[in-house]
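Our preliminary data section would be incomplete without showing what the modeling component actually yields. Below, a chain of 99 amino acids is followed by its predicted structure, encoded as tokens that our downstream tools consume directly.
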Amino acid sequence: MVRWSFQSWNKDRSIASEEAYQQKRLAQQRIGREISGLAEKYGCTLAQLVIGWCLKNESIQCMLIGPTSTTELLIQLQALQVSCDLEGSYFSDIDDLTV
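Predicted structure:
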């Protein structure tokens, strides 16, 4: 007969949750590095690239930006120009990373 206890079940569940969390975190870090590489490739900041992608993505209804200074706000607003300058290929590059 197998003895079951809540403590052992909860411990196993905690370990599985932690492993899943770590895997998700590593995947997010990898995507972040790859998107940073794309920003460098296209000659803009990471924030500008992501804001530009959000502006062109029809499924995004609302976007909040959080500049901490006037300079940062101006840099982020340049994403409007960046999104106009970049071709559709960069959007598919980002979409490929996020799928």
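Residues 11 and 25 are 21 Å apart (CA to CA). The helical segments are 6-42, 46-56, 70-77, 79-85, 88-98. Preliminary results of this kind motivate Aim 1 of the renewal.
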